[in-house]
Every structure is written in structure tokens, then in C-alpha cells.
Protein 1
Amino acid sequence: MTDQITFPDVVSLAVPLFIAAILAELFWIHFKGRGGRYETRDAMTSLIMGAGNVASGILLGFIAYGFFMVLWQVTPLDLGTAWWVIALCFVLDDLRYYWVHLFGHRIRWVWASHVNHHSSQHYNLTTALRQTWTGTFTFMMVVRAPLILLGFHPAMVLFVGGLNLIYQFWIHTEAIGKLPRWVEAVMNTPSHHRVHHGRNPRYLDSNYAGVFIVWDRLFGTFVPEQEDEKVDYGLVHNIGTFNPLRVAFHEWAAIWRDVTRPGLTVGQRIRYAVMPPGWSHDGSRSMSDGIKARHLARHPEAAGTPGFETAAPQPSPSARTSA
Ligand SMILES: [Zn+2]
Ligand SMILES: [Zn+2]
């Protein structure tokens, strides 16, 4: 079995490209007077989060890599390193990314790590670098296990994962409108990913794709950017801080506070950690479906339009008490 395989560290190699693209976007916005906004404090926080993500990879990356190497020792399969194997690995890993990203929005434990990527109220190329410090603790490395057990070498799996991240960099911009129809149909684009960063009720829980938007179309989570509804970037409850430590750890702290509240059952404590963000034992908070339902109650004409295909308006408080 081939254990000694090395692939280039593409993300590190791409850093000069990231910097050049950020400068180009800054110039574009400055001279055109449109195509996005930069706020110095916000951009600095994003860059610090990016650097911290690299540091946490150096400090904690061995945990995931060790897990992958154990799987590699266990599996009898080895697909080798032919170009088509790498291409297939890239596509299957993108499917892996879709599910990890969906879990990142639908399981609070995973959201605690991913939330910081959404914590900026701006949308520019620095937002792409606003990455987690705590990904290891989500245990989402298990979603990569099937790839390695199928015979894709761990180094290859990490290599295509790096390519996936690099692809997602350039889509974090308002400077690019909609692309030709076939591109928007198949690929994740600035337009599709702007929607993913939206806190508008219509745009919540949509467009989880990494590279290929086809996964969202396939699994029913696709919402196209609406000409008449500008994306409002950020979190449902914005955290209002540029402090990198708070950005990195605030949701973990919030989970801790909820899980250790007095007077809850064990089941309720567990649900505070694993239910979707916004779940509460007494219904005092709102999950995304509740937010969509409330929006529909106020705007019934939106029923059936993109983002509201399945949501039903919530009964009014009076109807609920009489029921
Ligand atoms: Zn996300
Ligand atoms: Zn993003």
C-alpha cells in the first residue's frame, strides 16, 4: 500500500494570490465606487481569523490526519494516484463538503465552529479568509472517512479539500454580478454564495455548495439571488464585535451557558448542543423555519417563492391559545 505520497500544500501556495486579489478588489471598489464595502476593523478581524485557522491546523491537524492514517491502514482498497482518481476524489469530496457545511448550519455543535465565517456584516474577499479555529472539535473529519475507506489516499483527500477551499475564495465578492447561465447552473458562484451569507428569512439555510451548486439543486436547498431582494449579510443575531477571541469562541460559550442551566433534563441539555441553532427547551427562541414562518405570516404573498417553497405561516398567538 502506498503510504509515502505527497501533494503540494496548495492553500499556502495560494496565499500570495489571495493578497493580490484582495488588493485588486479594494482598487476596484475604490475607483468604481461600487462592488462591495470594506471596513478596516472588519477586514483585519477576518485576516486574523484566517491566520488563526492556519495556526490551529498546525497545532491540531495531527488529530484528523492521525484518524485518516488509521483508516488508511484498515482499508484494503487503494485507488492509486491516476489523474481520473484525483478528479473523482475532487467531485466526491465536494459532496462531502456539502454535507459538512449543511451540518455546520443545522447542528449547533458544528455551527459553533462555522458561525464565525458568517459573523461579518460585509461581503468581500477578506470574508472568505474568516475561517474557524475550532473545526477539529466538531468531529466532522468522520465525514471524510468513506473517501479514505474507498481507497483515496489521505494526502489526496486533503489536497482536493485544499483546492475546494481555494475555489471558494473568489466567490466572496460583490464585484461580480451573475455569470453566464451554464456557469450559474453548475458551479457555485458569487451570486449563489452571497445568498448563503444572507440573514434575510428567504435566504436562510440555502446554497451549502462548495464548488458545484448542483448538490443544492439535487437536495432541495438551492435559492437563487433575487433581483429585488438585496442580501443582508451576517447572522440572525449579529454579535457586534471585532474581537477575534469572541468571534472564535462566542457560540461555544453560549452552548456552555445553555447546557449548564439549572433545572433542565439531560435530554434538554443534549438538545441545546445538537439541535439546530435557535432551538430552546421552552420555545422562546426561533430556528430558521420559525423565522421563515413568521415572515410568511406578515408577507403571505411570498408563499411558494424561492426560499419559502416549504415554509408554512405560523398561526397567530391568538389562534395558538384557542387551539
Ligand atoms: Zn455557511
Ligand atoms: Zn462563505
Protein 2
Amino acid sequence: MKISEMFASIQGESTLQGIPSVFIRLAGCNLYCRYCDTTYARSGGTEMTVEEIIDKVKSFELSFVCITGGEPLLQKETPELAGKLVGSGYKVSVETNGTIDASSLPDNVKRIIDIKCPGSGEDGKTFMKNISLRRNGDEFKFVITGREDFEYARHFVSKHNLADIHTVLFSPVLDVLNPELLADWILHEMPEARLNLQLHKYIWPNEKKGR
Ligand code: SF4
């Protein structure tokens, strides 16, 4: 597999926020979001086998593992990696940009599925079977750059009843949308959503990610 980086840090997002976790960042992405904060992961990467990755995960001595990118589902071994990590006793989440079929991921992997809004420049590319075949435990994330994105996200959530049993995460782009403003919109207009501040960017504003 092509690995951009592996490190231990505090999970900054989703309902797993705050949990010390190992991050496996896979290299490569099929999108070009305007606000992308991991452009370095779009290309390159070090070749590692699934077994080598799992050995390195073990060296961090943590229980939670987050497979992210880039776009992790571009690599065909990702479901195998996730399944073997679960089989080794880890609690595993996969963060995907939502444009690729996520059904190959094992059932006991938490899927954090991004739905791209207009501010990304990549809206309309969601693989819609990920929505119709969603599973218990899936979380849906909307990165919000402004009012147009908020309206888009609110409409999408309502149209697909996403908030019925799923956590819906609204995440403001740092230095683009004031979190206070998004909090106000959520409180008054979309209380089903959960404000998702990227905790790691407040802890480590200068790129340091952990250890
Ligand atoms: S999907 Fe994620 S990694 Fe890919 S360009 Fe968008 S923000 Fe960056």
C-alpha cells in the first residue's frame, strides 16, 4: 500500500474526538478540494505491506486506529487492512470523501463519510449507494465554508433523513468560517447536526500532529 504517513495523535473529529489514536494516512486522492489541508498526501507515499503497517500500528500501543487520506478507498487493500486491524483487536474508523463505494469495508469498521458541499468545488460526486446502503454507526460529515454550504448540507440531510439514526457532523473550515457563526446557525436552524471543530488544529496550530 502507498502510505503517506503514520503517527499517533488525538482524534480531532467525529464522535471519537479526543481519543488517542493511531493515524494511517494513505497516499493519493481523486478530488481537489479548495480547502484541502493534506495536499502533501495527494501523491507519493512509501510502499508498505499490510503486515508492515499492522506491525507499525502495534508499536504505538494504542487501541484506536483511524485510516484516512488522501482517499483511502482508492487502494484495493484498504478493506483487508481494516479487517485485519479489527481482527487484531483494534477499534477502527475509516474516513472517506464519499465518492467511492464503501461497501467493501467490514461491518465492524466505523465509516466517517464526507459529503462534499459547493465550497469544496467537488460537490455532486457523492457515490449515492453509500447513502442508500448506509449502516448503523456511519457518521456523515459536511465541511462548511459559508452559508451556501450550510443550506446545501441542511437540504441533503433532510432529503435523505440522515439524522434519523446517524451522527451528522458540521465542520467549519478554520480561518474561513467563524465557528461561532456556524454554532449559531446549528442552534437556530439545524439542531440535529453536531458542531465538529477540528480539535487537533486548536491543539497544534503549527502542523505538529502528535508523536
Ligand atoms: S478529499 Fe480530502 S484529501 Fe482529497 S482533496 Fe478533498 S480534502 Fe484533500
